[in-house]
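Bumping with the actual sequence this time:
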Amino acid sequence: MFKKILIANRGEIALRIIRTCKEMGIKSVAVYSTVDVESLHVKFADEAVCIGPAPSSESYLKMSNIIAAAEITNVDAIHPGYGFLAENAHFSKICEEHGIKFIGASPDMISRMGDKASARETMKKAGVPTIPGSEGIIETFQEAEKIAKEIGYPVMLKATAGGGGKGMRAVWKEEDLQNAWDSARAEAKAAFGNDAMYLEKLIEEPRHIEIQIVGDSTGKACHLSERDCSIQRRHQKLTEETPSPFMTDELRKKMGEAAVKATEYIKYEGVGTIEFLVDKNRNFYFMEMNTRIQVEHPITEQVIGNFDLIREQIKAAEGIPITGINYYPTQHSIECRINAEDPFNGFRPSPGKITTFHAPGGHGVRIDTHVYDNYTIPPNYDSMIAKLIVTAQTREEAINKMRRALDEFVIEGVKTTIPFHRQLMENPDYVAGNYTTKFMEDFEIQPEE
């Protein structure tokens, strides 16, 4: 068993990991930047080390500072949470070299699955359905033009090192390909220092449905069913639910089996997700693998017998085998990401001091957050400040519970996305489960009285 774990992250996910560590009898070490000194993850950890100033490049992304903090506190392992260094192969390797267990994927696994072209080829070999497209990286525009003609428009250009929607362009007709090629490469180069591209068929009326998986050191894997993450804005998820209203029992079984096949083929150890695009005819295609815990993991925990996925990550890192049993949802759970953003002004970030914070409660309501009354949200990091999770017997009950919880949720001093989520829960298409990843393109938030 690990005796002490350093959490190389901040905010709600750091606090979430600290809580599980305490329950497992494991000491926790928080790291923090100078502007995060008042964050709850710093207050509730057993130890805390300042690792630098506000910019993430000088603190949460500064590997040497994190390793130094790990060594002076004598930890056994580092949990990276999500974001920052969670899927950084070099950091995983450095941990390995310093005799510190990285609670996540191996350097090789992160490299293989982090590169989208490599991941796609690996999944094809594993027998998992993939989207028709280029065989690896496209070297020239002429090659892109040729492949697009072969598979037919519409197509999607994607940066192989992409993420967060950067370096992606949908192309509906041939005359638009050149502009899309040039702009996608330029954006990818600026964001990732890598302008390598690949091309694939654009899936029409797509749903973004991911399968939660757990693998152990023996090569065995299981799945914990699906999450529907289709409500997105600029490829950033806004709300998620499980089970998906689009799913059938047959499709759930097929996608779960495909995810387990993929996980066992690559001998993946730990918690992760296999992400799929599902078209209007319920054909599913591998999109990518996330070799880390997901923001939206709580909804799976809520419907699978209160499963603790952070605990499962730690157990997998300790080499404890899994049962190999697949799990299916017995209830319905919805998560709304509460961001410090102004939904009436293009979702512009709204950092600042929270003057009033009242969290909803009651049966079936869970809040994961690191903020409180008089907490100051720094402008340096992601704008998510809370996750509101509700669980009920049916989807209809879950939506009604979410409406009630959102009405109880009071945050003053900064703008938040609570008004957006209130309107989403009243939207007829959302309520009917009739939505795709394009939903937000037609959604217009209305002024509140």
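The tokens above came from a reply further down the thread. The CA atoms of residues 205 and 280 lie 6 Å apart.
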